[in-house]
Amino acid sequence: MGNGQLLSCVVEPGHRADNPLYIPMIDRARKMLGKTGLLYVGDCKMASLEIRAHLVAGGDYYLTSLAQKDRTGR
């Protein structure tokens, strides 16, 4: 890989929260690629502690924006 290709996509209604979709998508990507050390890029909804912990526990990395309260500790 390494060329920035889309691996997986889920289309959901706009009234549903994004957060529950990330971990199953991450797990699917891991299974398809069969390796760790991957970089996942997502919006601020991917920045929840649960999702970031899941990525790190699996040996992967993330790039996401943090909400203002997460950046200041308040």
Tell me what you see in this structure:
Strand 1 (39-42), helix 2 and strand 2 (61-64) form a beta-alpha-beta unit. The chain is built from three helices and two strands, in the order H-E-H-E-H. The mean pLDDT is 83. The protein has 74 residues and is of the alpha+beta class. It has one domain (19-72). The protein has helices spanning 19-33, 49-57, 68-72, and strands at residues 39-42, 61-64.
User: Biggest sheet, in brief?
Assistant: 2 strands, parallel
Q: Percentage of helical residues?
A: 25-40%
Strand order of the largest sheet: 1-2
Spatial extent as radius of gyration? 13 Å
Tell me the total number of β-strands.
Answer: 2
Shape: globular
* Count of alpha/pi helices: 3
The end-to-end distance, rounded to whole angstroms, is 39 Å
Average pLDDT value? 83
H/E series, N to C?
HEHEH
Point out poorly predicted stretches.
none
The total domain count is 1
Kindly estimate the percentage of residues that lie in beta strands according to DSSP: 5-15%
Task: Indicate the structural class.
Answer: alpha+beta
Indicate the topology.
Elements (H helix, E strand, L loop, with lengths): L18 H15 L5 E4 L6 H9 L3 E4 L3 H5 L2
Parallel strand pairs: 1-2
Characteristic terms for this protein:
2 strands; globular; 74 residues; single chain; two-stranded parallel ribbon
Write a brief structural summary.
The protein is an alpha+beta fold and 74 residues long.
